[in-house]
Amino acid sequence: MQSKISEELKMKFPPIALLKSDNKPENAIGPKTGKGGCVMSFVAQTIAKRKTTYFGREHITCGGINVGFGWGSGFENEAMMDFQATFLSCGVESSPNPEAYLERLNHMPKNTREMFTHGERIYCDFETAKESIKNRPVYDEGEYVIFKGLENLEDDEIPESVIFTVNPIELTALIQINTSFRLDGACILTPQASACQAIGCFTFQQDESDDPKPVLGPIDFAGRSKMKHFIPNDYLNVSMPWKLFLKLEKISEKSVLQTDLWKKFI
Questions:
Q1: Residues facing residue 238 across a β-bridge
Q2: Which terminus of the chain is more exposed, N or C, with fewer CB under 10 A?
């Protein structure tokens, strides 16, 4: 399948699809056995190289990816949630139990330990981080997520998410198409989420809505750092449920993209 929007915009990076599966895909790139890392390096390869990639539950090494791709909350107990809330805020200075937090860091490699000591600072304090973690949309299904170019979808495949990768002008056009049928001002979401959660669980949640919104990301620099080898820094992702993608594709046939004003930006 080809995207009409992508063709009109002459996008450098056509959209990709995220699919769920219980089976490991053949002829796809994934983590080596026993290893994981950040999934966004695989997503970036699909975006830039059009290679089909995958990531599975057995590859989880990151605290946020469980919930990101609908593999449960990732927390066996309250202490694990507190640890992640501490890391996502200001590290040891945010911790409700600094001694216990530092003890866990002692078992980490030096570079990782330093990062966890100061925190990722996605949230301003521990309380905000923990409350946000509690409010993440949680699902638990499927063993793998698969990323492939939209043009490589099989006829019977329906994505969970369609992910555009856009520069500022392409983003402007996409937002205008998305807002052209709406009356309220909340037309695109920017959840304080990791890159995988933006294209994953927060987009899955929008699929449950009668009025789904696109999700803009990545707004976390950890996720971006794993993509920058393949994707220029001035690009963003816009993720949306399949049903919203189809709607925008239809609307785009009579949209700003057919105006002389748009042609000045081609």
A1: 164, 216
A2: C
